[in-house]
Amino acid sequence: METKKKIDVPVKEFSALMDLMGEKLPDILTAILGTLYSETAGRNMGKAVGAFYQELLASGLTQALVEDMAKEYLQTMAHRITIVPQG
After folding, report:
1. pLDDT of residue 85
2. How distant is the alpha carbon of residue 33 from its chain centre?
3. H or E segment at 55?
4. pTM of the full predicted structure?
5. How far is residue 39's CA from residue 47's CA, in Å, rounded to a whole number?
6. Based on C-alpha coordinates, what's the Rg of the chain?
7. Does residue 3 lie within any of the structural domains?
8. Total domain count for the chain?
């Protein structure tokens, strides 16, 4: 038969840590979401899609295929942002 070991949990310290997280976590999440949805983030996303589009055109792909691929790329980038839970 297996003997269970007693685990000493520092309840006061754990409680203090949880209180601190409760205070700090909302500000951290707000800062992260602000970064994801900022004007700069939008501008950078546009630049990334534009560069992707130009590279595809330069590689000799058809305009229609390049447009489809760039659209899918933008949708993928946008989807990655929307899966982040919002307050």
Report:
1. 53
2. 8
3. helix 39-58
4. 0.58
5. 12
6. 23
7. no
8. 1
Token pair in block for residue 17: 């840590």
- Residue of 11, 29, 7 lying closest to 19 (CA atoms): 11
CA distance 54 to 58: 6
Mind listing the pLDDT tens digit for each residue in 37-62?
888 988 999 999 999 999 999 999 99
**38 inside domain:** yes
Classify residue 83 by its DSSP letter.
Answer: T
CA 65 – CA 62 distance, rounded (Å): 5
Residue 1 maps to a domain: no
- Neighbouring CB atoms inside 10 A of 12's CB total 8
Cα–Cα distance, 56 to 71 (Å, whole number) = 12
CB 60 within 8 A of CB 81: no
Give residues with Cβ within 8 angstroms of 29, minimum separation 6.
Answer: 87
Q: Is residue 87 part of a domain?
A: no
Instruction: Give me the domain span that covers residue 37.
Output: 11-82
